[in-house]
Design brief:
Layout (H helix, E strand, L loop, with lengths): L3 E5 L25 E6 L7 E5 L8 E4 L5 E4 L6 E3 L6 E4 L11 H10 L40 E4 L24 E9 L2 E7 L7 E6 L6 E5 L4 E3 L10 E13 L2 E14 L6 E5 L5 H7 L23 E2 L10 E2 L4 E5 L5 E10 L5 E10 L1
Pfam family, one: HmuY
Organism: Chryseobacterium endalhagicum
Keywords: Signal
């Protein structure tokens, strides 16, 4: 089979979020598979890249610092934070008036509302990593109809993307300077949300009405621009998201060490019905991958309720005894079912560029 090589190359100008305005009323699977080179931007991994296997023209990319909050556009009122820059959020005790909150009110929270403290208690400061934000008990509470019931939060804005990409082969540098803190309060508004935000010590605040656009999962908002920004493609126009990621880490099976920041992560669009499972053949991987057909799909193995179903399972960042460098596992491939019900097999070929630097991923896929 001839493979069409698709290169997700984005110039500095094109790093602004972009999506295709086209959306086929009757989607069709691709005739052939492709080899996809995903440019995450080098060892600082500055980019988030969103890929639709059925319509590769719908690829989109953004810098991970382009947004801060995501406002859910469906029924209900829910808000997520940007885990790709290690953000956290904490409710300020007894705070109802955003103007009255001072640095003294949040001093203790600033010591704990951080990623990577190796304290399992810090999981309450992040969105649940499985992506089930509608039912999570961490992060920002569902927004109440009564304004007085909506708390004031301390928002840790996470970390900048490091300015230098002069990083040795096999290594990454994900966390630059601290982006600071905000105090925020979110209320309901007609067909959307009202966000109030300020620096912690300010006695005034900015306010913005964030609309719901139901063609997307979220309306994303940036404090840098003070306005919504386009990040993810439309709801069913992406399957895989390549990103850095705030996950839960464990010191032993079942023993949580709290939130931790991951490189080289892949999320699946589980909220719109994308499911994935791993195939680990006992024989030759090339032969097993080539021979796998639609009739071999095991419906019982699909994971539809955890966006980490693919996650970090395709690579090792610490290496192995026989191969100590970060590398792609050579003993597995994955089966994906997309939102339209099409099936694909995919496998990863590399997680580094030809000169050994992280932040460039190559995978191939075929429709089944």
């Amino acid at each position: 089979m001839n493979y069409l090589k698709i290169f997700a190359l984005f110039s500095a100008i094109a790093l602004q979020s972009c999506i295709s305005a086209d959306e086929d009323p009757v989607p069709a699977p691709p005739i052939t598979g492709s080899v996809v080179k995903v440019e995450i931007g080098g060892a600082t991994e500055p980019n988030q890249v969103w890929i639709d296997l059925s319509e590769l023209k719908n690829q989109a990319a953004n810098k991970r610092t382009d947004w801060d909050l995501g406002f859910y556009t469906g029924d209900g009122f829910h808000v997520v934070i940007n885990g790709s820059i290690a953000m956290t959020v904490a409710k300020i005790p007894n705070a109802k008036d955003i103007k009255a909150v001072t640095e003294a009110d949040v001093a203790a929270l600033k010591e704990s509302a951080m990623v990577g403290t190796f304290n399992p208690a810090n999981m309450k400061y992040i969105d649940h990593p499985d992506g089930n934000f509608l039912t999570q008990t961490s992060g920002i509470e569902p927004i109440k109809e009564n304004d007085a019931e909506n708390p004031v939060y301390l928002l840790n804005l996470g970390r900048e993307i490091p300015s230098s990409n002069n990083i040795g082969p096999g290594s990454v540098s994900l966390s630059g300077a601290a982006r600071g803190w905000k105090k925020i309060q979110i209320l309901r508004a007609l067909n959307g949300y009202k966000i109030r935000y300020a620096n912690v010590g300010d006695t005034t605040y900015s306010e913005y009405l964030v609309p719901k656009d139901t063609e997307y999962n979220f309306t994303f908002f940036s404090f840098n621009t003070g306005a919504p920004v386009k990040i993810q493609p439309k709801k069913k126009n992406w399957d895989l998201g390549f990103t850095t990621f705030t996950n839960e880490v464990f010191t032993a099976p079942g023993v949580s060490a709290g939130s931790y920041f991951f490189a080289d992560f892949v999320v699946t669009n589980t909220f719109n019905g994308v499911g994935v499972y791993q195939v680990t053949p006992t024989g030759n991987l090339d032969q097993a991958y080539g021979a796998f057909k639609l009739g071999d799909v095991d419906q019982s193995k699909f994971v539809f309720n955890d966006q980490r179903a693919l996650g970090d399972k395709w690579r090792t960042t610490t290496g192995t005894e026989s191969n100590p460098q970060p590398h792609v596992y050579a003993d597995r491939f994955f089966i994906l079912k997309d939102a339209e019900g099409f099936y694909f097999k995919l496998r990863f070929n590399t997680m580094k560029s030809e000169d050994g630097h992280r932040g460039t991923t190559n995978f191939e896929f075929e429709p089944l």
